[in-house]
Write a structure and sequence with these properties.
Blueprint: E1 2-6, H1 11-21, E2 27-31, H2 41-44, E3 67-70, H3 76-79, H4 81-85, E4 90-93, H5 103-110, E5 123-125, H6 128-136, E6 140-142, H7 146-160, E7 168-175, H8 190-193, E8 197-201, H9 207-214, E9 222-230, E10 236-242, H10 250-261, E11 267-269, E12 291-297, E13 304-310, H11 314-329
Parallel strand pairs: 1-2, 1-3, 3-4, 4-6, 5-6, 7-9, 11-12
Antiparallel strand pairs: 7-10, 8-9, 10-13, 12-13
Helix pairs in contact: 1-11, 6-11, 7-9
């Protein structure tokens, strides 16, 4: 199957190329970059040396293919939608352009109107653990925000079971620098970023809207979300706090999570009695498509703490996209995504 990657010079584009060049059933036909057109892909992504001799081309040089991946910056894909949808019958867009089901929600969280609202209904929100059958039958799939993905996967079993009191949750997400992309700014300048634990959006983060949308199993949830930048390159760690409608003990919580995730290939319930890695830890997930989730109940107050971690460039972006492509093609969704991460690193 032939495919091309649009916006391939960024971090997510590079991760897509790494996965797809090693995928046993696909051939990467083209990789676009307006800023790097004509240059060798391996010159921008040095980890791909000897894996490819491809050169970046411009969008206007795209040829028809079977699947088109887009890693364009937010707002760019929708402006080119009519042009790009003619390139391939199947599209996986990893930007935020088509994540919301309504133009009103997009405007609320992104602060401007959607330029292609009539196309929103074409896209399936691309978290396989929530929308597997829809993705199998889809021709257009959208990626999910990395912070949103982590929170949704950590919390979904409890919200889906209707167990969250008042449908309310408080979420703190910590994220590494690669989530901001490869464009330099003062915030990413080494003296400013090194050693930082920086609250950059304690309220109003865009991914809040995705969490609300995807956890609306029993009415609209009340989601209180904060985001903090920490000194990682890759990784997201979410800690969420909630109370239950009923008095479930630890065994009951285990049963809820096992029912939801026992057969999921890329979700691991991590809850050990001892050891350094007894809870989810982004460090050991680098390069993998796993999301590790955990939970703990405070016996004194009844509060439940949910934890989740993943690699923002993998399960939070490119890996999730390849998993969706595998489903769309009718393949084993694990294909090309078996790498388990590294330890130590």
């Amino acid at each position: 199957m032939k495919l091309s990657v649009v916006g391939a010079s960024g971090y997510v584009g590079g991760e897509l190329l790494r996965l797809l060049l090693l995928h046993p059933r696909v051939e990467v036909q083209q990789a676009t970059s307006e800023s790097q057109a004509g240059k060798l892909v391996a010159g921008v992504h040095p980890n791909l040396r000897k894996l490819t001799t491809l050169r970046f081309c411009s969008l206007d040089e795209l040829e028809p293919c079977d699947v088109l991946f887009s890693a364009l910056p937010h707002g760019h894909f929708m402006s080119r939608f009519d042009q790009l949808r003619s390139i391939a019958p199947r599209i996986v867009d990893l930007s935020a352009d088509f994540r919301f089901r309504s133009a009103e929600a997009y405007t609320q969280w992104y602060g401007h109107e959607h330029t292609k609202p009539e196309a929103l209904g074409r896209f399936v929100y691309g978290i396989p653990e929530l929308h597997r059958e829809e993705i199998r039958n889809a021709s257009h799939v959208t990626g999910a925000g990395c912070l949103a993905t982590t929170a949704i996967l950590g919390l979904m079993p409890l919200f889906a079971a209707g167990l969250v009191r008042d449908n309310e949750v408080f979420i703190e997400a910590k994220v590494g620098s690669s989530a901001a992309g490869n464009a330099a700014s003062l915030a990413t300048h080494h003296p400013e970023r090194s050693g930082a634990v920086r609250s950059f959006q304690p309220t109003g983060h865009r991914h809040t809207g995705e969490i609300i949308q995807e956890l609306s199993f029993h009415g609209t949830p009340r989601v209180h979300f904060s985001a903090t930048a920490i000194e990682l390159v890759r990784g997201v760690h979410v800690t969420a706090h909630l109370f239950l409608r009923e008095d479930l003990d630890e065994k009951g919580l285990w049963n809820v999570y096992r029912r939801a995730y026992g057969a999921e290939p890329f979700i691991r319930i991590v809850k050990e009695a001892k050891g350094v890695y007894r809870y989810p830890e982004p460090k050991i997930l680098i390069g993998s498509n796993y999301c590790d989730v955990s939970f703990e109940k405070d016996a004194r107050s009844g509060r439940v703490v949910v934890m989740a971690a993943l690699d923002n460039l993998m399960k939070g972006a490119a890996g999730n996209g390849v998993q969706a492509m595998n489903l769309m093609a009718g393949w084993d969704e694990r294909l090309g995504l078996e790498f388990p991460g590294l330890h130590p690193v």
